[in-house]
Amino acid sequence: MKRKIVTLAMMVFASYFGFAQDSGTASHTLSVTVPEVAILDLESPGTTAIALSFTAPTEAGMGVEGSSNSDLWLNYSSIKSTVNPTRTVNVQMSKIIPGADIKVAAAAHAGTGEGAVGTPAGELTLTTSAQTLVNGIGSCYTGDGVSNGHNLTYSLVVGSDYSALEKTNEPVTITYTISN
Amino acid sequence: MRVRILIILLCGFSCSVYAQKIEVKGKWKINVSAKDILNAGNDYNTCYESSEGEVEFRVKNNWNHEYNGYSWIVYINKQDEIWHPNLKLSVRRTSDGSSAYACYSYIYGGGYYRNVSDRHSFFCAGYRGRDNVELQYKLEGVSLLLPVRNYKTYVTYTIVEY
User: Fold this and answer.
1) Does B29 sit within 8 Å of A22, measured CB to CB?
2) Which range among A5-9, A47-51, B80-84 shows the weakest confidence by mean pLDDT?
3) How many whole angstroms separate alpha carbon A177 and alpha carbon B100?
4) Could you tell me the maximum CA-CA distance found in chain B, to the nearest angstrom?
5) Over B86-98, what HEC string results?
6) DSSP string for residues in A128-147
7) Are residues A115 and A79 in contact, defined by beta-carbon separation less than 8 angstroms?
8) ipTM, two decimals
């Protein structure tokens, strides 16, 4: 009988101090959704409207001379799609200038930025159809502003048909698109 | 007779064994958007903060509620479902909360951002029950270089008495 009482007393004692080791937990979720991203823009020290012109010859019998411009920089930010592992930047212009070719070349990535930036495809002669200027773009950002991204060099040259040249001052729109 | 009394006492103690409990209310969901990128060529703003009180916790006494408070410590850790090693989560306490017995209850620690890792680490401590202790989270490392995914982790608060 006495033994039972002692045992029960010990159990009471133990249960009383048991709380010292009690603990409780509670939790909640924290979720982050990282979506696909594909944005680009053009940067320049001034305006993104550039003027290219032919220079009249100073000597009779010579042809007009073209010009070039390297003011523009192509910036983009991209998170690649799960379906398409890479993106491209395509370029096209609104209309053809008779007798003249407008060419564009993207330089290799420069400046800040990080990740799988794209590879320039080389110089293109612009047409009204989209052509790939930069390919192999993965998850990356080029850096923002002038001197970051791909420097674009435009050249205005006489086309294959000199006879098609005529005086004009019509603007053309050149459009860059980053693929989804 | 003595045995019966002891059994009754034992049952009574067992039912009312003192234990602190912690309850957490709220969650934090971050929808990173391309709009967060101010200009093409930039990365995301790499630091995201929840609003203050996005998540709250409460320390509750089981026995007679506030009357029989003891000292406690809250540890914090996370268990990842899908996570990226570049993502760094931290949390801080933005309020002391309240207590029905303010004079006999207090809380300290956790006022500055503390890293939340897979391992339990001290977050804050206190005495007796506290309600509506507000928390604020900070997530660093969000970048365009992270794969497209829904990242998810469970933040767990563990209370231990001493």
Assistant:
1) no
2) A5-9
3) 62
4) 84
5) CCEEEEEECCCCE
6) SS-EEEEEEE-SEE--SSTT
7) no
8) 0.77
Torsion of CA B49, B52, B54, B59, to 10 degrees: 130
- Going along A12-139, which residue ranges are E strands? 23-34, 37-43, 67-69, 73-79, 87-93, 100-106, 114-115, 119-120, 124-125, 131-137
CA B67 to chain centroid, in Å, comes to: 23
The mean of the pLDDT values for chain B is: 84
What residue in B sits closest to A38 (Cα-Cα)? Answer: B34
Q: What is the pLDDT of residue B80?
A: 96
DSSP letter at A179?
Answer: -
**Domain coordinates of chain A in residue numbers?**
35-178
Specify the residue for token string 């309020």.
B95
Q: Between A and B, how many CB-CB pairs are < 8 A? A: 189
pLDDT, tens only, B110-147: 999 999 999 999 999 998 888 999 999 999 999 999 98
Residue B73 contacts A, CB cutoff 8 Å: no
DSSP-derived pairing of the beta strands B28-31 and A23-34: parallel
Chain B residues 52-71 with CB within 8 Å of chain A:
55, 57, 70
Strand duo B114-115 + B88-93: pairing: antiparallel
In angstroms, the CA A7 to CA A10 distance is 5
Structure tokens at A134: 């930069």
In sequence order, which residues have a C-beta less than 8 Å from that of residue A76 and are 6 or more positions away? Answer: A38, A39, A40, A41, A89, A118, A137, A140, A141, A142, A149, A178, B40, B41
Q: Which residue(s) pair with A140 in the sheet?
A: A78, A115
Classify residue A86 as exposed, middle or buried by CB count within 10 Å of its CB (0-12, 13-18, 19+).
middle
Six token digits for residue B22: 């912690």
